Amino acid sequence: MKLKITTVFAALGICLQAFAQDPQFVQFYASPLQLNPAMTGVHPGKWRAVVNYREQWSSILDSKPYKSLSASFDAKNQIGRGDYLAYGVTVLRDQAGSSNYLRQSADLSLSYMKELDGSRYSQYEQYLIGGASVGFGQHSLDYGGLWFSSQFNNGTEQIDYSLSNGESINESSGAYMNINAGLLWYAVFDDNKSLYFGGSLNHVNAPKVSFIDADGQESIDMKWVGHAGGELPFSHQFSILPAVAVIGQGENMLALYGANVRYTNRDWNEVALRAGLWGHLAKDVEGGFATPAVTFTAILELERWNLGVSYDIASNKLSPPTNNRGAFELSLIYYHPGERKARVKCPKL
Asked: Mind listing the pLDDT tens digit for each residue in 201-213?
């Protein structure tokens, strides 16, 4: 019984801490507009479409796990000789728990890609990109799946949903405006050699989110993101793509780090495979740092398509209550090729 109670409270601690921060995809390199608005337009084609799906904590929450679904579209137009203006749209739906706690948002992003060096005749290119996004969001929950102490019938020792829950909380927050901004620098030295650094600030306007009244003081903490990555060749066919993302929001902090190894057949109809291992480093409730999970990834590149699959294996203190079951994640990316004269070199993400 003591073990069961400890497990329940551990699960509650996980849920409460997760609700205090934004949903995060472990395949952060495959959800670029969620990571940094300056990533808008950073792709080799004329436009790009991305879909991400993540399901987490099904081992604890059974039929009500965390489910995050994101979709984005971005395109770019050439301005002058080597600069680009890019624009995009991102939508996010995140739902979890018996309360069906739901977060929904939609953002429009805009970025300017300034060429710093290189030309169509040079062997490398580098760009400095500034981006921003603005959008709206709303949080909601469903009381139908919850019960409160005032609804416990001592006579029957059962929950009586016909009794009042004694709460005066709205089922949805008011719609809020959200503002984000970011910077990115990258250089492409060769077909399989590149480097990039970036950072962003999210919720810079600290939007108010309250389930009590429209003037509630609860707000979404500003989130900062620092990320870097690149590609290093082993041979003409093999390369490694290391990357890291460090995310802080309020008292929460998470670092995702690792690498994918890439193999390509170098044929005209290029097919490439990636496989990788990624670590998680998170700030726990006691203020220290722990490794809550490790992630295994596999990615198939087929001409214009990228399909990624990953699975988290829970570790550390999360191993016993979850039976090492973490999260399952999918990503799908499509690039539409641009005109030859307007193509720009971009790093592989």
From this structure: 999 998 888 777 6
The whole-angstrom separation of Cα 219 and Cα 95 is 19
Which SS3 state, helix, strand or coil, does residue 145 take? helix
Domains and CATH numbers, the chain: 2-342 (2.40.160.40)
Radius of gyration of the chain (CA): 22
Instruction: Please state the separation of Cα 239 from the chain's center in Å.
Output: 25
The pair of structure tokens assigned to 35 is 């990571």
**DSSP symbols for 120-151:** TTSS-EEEEEEEEEEEEEEEE--GGG---GGG
Q: Are 165 and 149 in contact (CB under 8 A)?
A: no
Cα–Cα distance list, 162 to 63, 147, 236, 266 (Å): 24, 10, 69, 66
The span from the CA of 96 to the CA of 56, in Å, is 9
What is the spatial distance between Cα 274 and Cα 259, in angstroms, rounded to a whole number?
Answer: 10
Both tokens assigned to 139: 């949080």
Helix (H, G, I), strand (E, B) or coil at 168: coil
3-state secondary structure of 341: helix
Beta bridge partners of 103: 94, 139
Asked whether residue 214 carries a pLDDT value surpassing 60, the answer given is no
Residues ≥6 apart with Cβ < 8 Å to 1? none
Look-up of token digits 């994918």: 260
